[in-house]
Amino acid sequence: MTLIRISEVVSGLDARCTLLEKEAPASCAFLLELASRRATFEAMHAVWTGPELSVPMPSDLLPTDMPRPEIRAENATSFPSSGDVVLAYLPAGSTQGLPPGDFYDVGIFYGSGGRLLMPFGWIQANVCARIVDEDLAKAQADLRMIRRNGVCQITFEAA
Question: What per-residue confidence (pLDDT) applies to 112?
Answer without folding.
Answer: 93
